[in-house]
Amino acid sequence: MVAEAPLGQKLLFGYTWLTMGLYLLLIVTLLKARRSIRSFQTPYYTLFLLQAVADFHIFLVLELVLRPRKFNYFNAFSKNMHVFAVFSYFDITFAKAALGCGHMVISFNRVTAFNNPLTYENIWSPTTILSSVLLLWTVAAMTSLPYLLIFNEGIFFLLLNNGIIQLYASNAATTYDGIVSVTINTVVIIFCSTCYILSWRKARNALKKKEVPNLVHRLKRVAVHIDDRPAFAKLTCHMPLYSAAAFSCRPRM
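Now predict its structure.
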């Protein structure tokens, strides 16, 4: 029995695929721009692209795993698919956790960019970026493992009278899910908010104390002294707090 998707679900389906198509176009454009524009080669944009992996993962889980199962597309699903039910529960919880953890990495990246502009790229080396992302994705997977190892017998599909195949879980599984979700969301909100507030305060204080023109002037004098104007251009290009102010006095390449 195939369930009829309500109009709201159909509109949401169209809107979701449209927006993710635009998102994909943005990613492709960014990847092309990274070949020639150095500003797009900074660690921040590398993290942005890695976060896009998590974004598309949760999108594909929703659109290719959960929605087709719920409305039984092509009559390809049944309530007896226990392994698929457990996998679905694990995958969606992992995707949500990985998405939140990714925002924490990006927010911490912004703090270091504002507070350590000259050593920013050394701090966020490719090894650091890859290690931090893999670590947080591993944490997200570890928090979801109990659905595979402990609560797997309590996760199942239930066929409703209207043909919808609903995913259900035992009280223990839903309680654990609630605790993990609240914990992760709270940590992400507090951590990211703190990082962005610190970044904003650093930027505001720097502008009030006129640190921007002073630092740019010192960098320019050093670059001219050592006859290394390309080095000055590289420094100013990768300082997110100072790049706008430095643009007017950046040497032409």
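The chain has one domain: 7-212.
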